[in-house]
């Protein structure tokens, strides 16, 4: 099928390449000329495992092209809209400027019978408000949210755990459902659940999934706070409660909490939208979820201060990681980068390293010192803080090797990813998050 994808960021670029990889003819469109030039050259503009390969294959096959010209969308049967919905400046709501601009730019190129499929995460009610403009152009709007995780985005797009489509009632909705089934045929044939619903439910599926995941992380981080005062170990607690299949162990990783381009802004936008709908109290707990999450960053900073005897001023602190999570170069709302900035603010001489995210981190916080090489970053450190559990640190860095480079013996494990016994045996004073 011929498809267009509007917006070529973390979501759209992966979607375009993934759709080409399953046999469709895809044009990716974005207003950012540099990004389009990079993609058109077959290079991924950000770090995402597996993306370069499917980009190169798609371009070589002739099925995948990129352009800044919206006219190239003409002739596609389905137009996916995957632009960003950041937090508004000075508020919690989602900024729909890019969604509206994408739809406006697309409208003149739509033909009778085209499908416009919204993929961006939007406040409930957005699809209903966009639909009249699209219907007037003879096309049908569906809402088809994306659940991809950065770092696993290719896999999550090619082989998702479920597909959700919000469609209008009546024959247009039925026809659109049939077309989406064709688009996602390989997944559906494999038995991937395909849930067809209304706009509002489809929009809410996405934000409620993210709200649930954020709540799960903050739940275990709240238990970490209790464990800290009770002398318990939150990691063992998570293992024990995680054996209950109703609870499950995944997303019970206590540490410095969640960040990234999705969970923080999505729970805030959800709260703002619930307020607008007169049901703010229904998701009032998301404020607590956010607060717990932010407190854990401060807790990591406190542990470094404590470990260094009450002040970090003039001390060399090595921060391992800058990305909001491993297998990503994304530093948007990165808890680890925030910890580094706070330590810098307290007068620490911060040396920050990350295998993929240094360029993005430097653009956001040029005041920090970045060291590409892990061992060079560790040399002479008074304290070491793990904030992103890359394999290079979690698996490959032995406490003995770290001790051979560092000046001090204080380690703060912001992701509970190190083995405390091994680090202590090598002479380190180990601090975990919610661990004795
Ligand atoms: C998330 C959702 O998982 C995905 O379904 C949605 O489409 C977009 O938002 P992503 O932002 O890529 O995906 O990251 P995710 O893997 O969910 O991690 C989010 C944050 O939570 C990271 O900062 C991670 O370090 C943190 N996290 C995750 C924890 O602190 N503990 C955990 O147990 C799991």
Give a quick summary of the entry.
The chain has helices at 12-21, 33-40, 51-61, 97-106, 126-136, 153-158, 171-183, 185-189, 199-230, 234-242, 263-276, 285-307, 335-345, 358-364, 374-378, 391-394, 399-405, 420-425; strands at 2-6, 25-29, 64-67, 78-81, 115-118, 140-143, 163-166, 194-197, 316-320, 349-353, 369-370, 383-386, 410-413, 429-431. By secondary structure, it is of the alpha/beta class.
Describe this structure in words.
This protein has 436 residues and is an alpha/beta fold. The chain is built from 18 helices and 14 strands. The structure holds uridine-5'-diphosphate-xylopyranose.
Task: Map the helices and strands.
Layout: E1 2-6, H1 12-21, E2 25-29, H2 33-40, H3 51-61, E3 64-67, E4 78-81, H4 97-106, E5 115-118, H5 126-136, E6 140-143, H6 153-158, E7 163-166, H7 171-183, H8 185-189, E8 194-197, H9 199-230, H10 234-242, H11 263-276, H12 285-307, E9 316-320, H13 335-345, E10 349-353, H14 358-364, E11 369-370, H15 374-378, E12 383-386, H16 391-394, H17 399-405, E13 410-413, H18 420-425, E14 429-431
Parallel strand pairs: 1-2, 1-4, 2-3, 4-5, 5-6, 7-8, 9-10, 9-12, 10-11, 12-13, 13-14
Helix pairs in contact: 1-3, 9-11, 9-12, 12-13
Describe the main β-sheet briefly. Answer: 6 strands, parallel
N-to-C span:
57 Å
**Strands of the biggest beta sheet: in what spatial order?**
3-2-1-4-5-6
Structural class: alpha/beta
| CATH top level class name of the largest domain | Alpha Beta
Number of DSSP E strands: 14
- CATH topology (fold) name of the largest domain: Rossmann fold
Sum up the overall morphology in one term: globular
Strand content: 5-15%
Query: Uncertain regions: pLDDT < 50 for 5+ in a row?
Result: none
The number of helical elements comes to: 18
Q: Which molecules other than protein and nucleic acid are bound?
A: uridine-5'-diphosphate-xylopyranose
CATH architecture call of the largest domain: 3-Layer(aba) Sandwich
Provide the gyration radius in Å.
Answer: 23 Å
The mean pLDDT is 98
